[in-house]
Specification:
Helix content: over 70%
Order of helices and strands: HHHHHHH
Distance between the termini: 23 Å
Oligomer: single chain
Number of helices: 7
Radius of gyration: 15 Å
Strand content: under 5%
Largest sheet: none
Structural class: mainly alpha
Amino acid sequence: CAMLFQHLLIIPRMTGQPVNQEKVAEQRKQVKKVVAKLEKYFLKSTPYISSDVITVADIFGACELMQLYPVLEEGLYESSPIVKAWMERVRKDTNPVFDDTHKFIFSARKAFQGMQAKL
């Protein structure tokens, strides 16, 4: 997720270079694999990563996936009803801290949308 975020927002913004679509496509494939593993192995029979209660693993995992939000790629995990529901649980269970912590992510989405509008 971090690499997709970097290739879509950080690198183009810092270098002025266009988005490398080949690298973006590869990173999307990697994210899809991670989402599939979350669904198939870690969230298969529990509401949280391998547990019935939220742990630091859930918080770290959700924060990683949140990096998709500013670059309009959250559909990569929202396409999985299981992972989407897990993300919603983690956010609900940790709010208002979750939203406060992700203020940068929310503002980065606006910056990315501005970049997209210029293209």
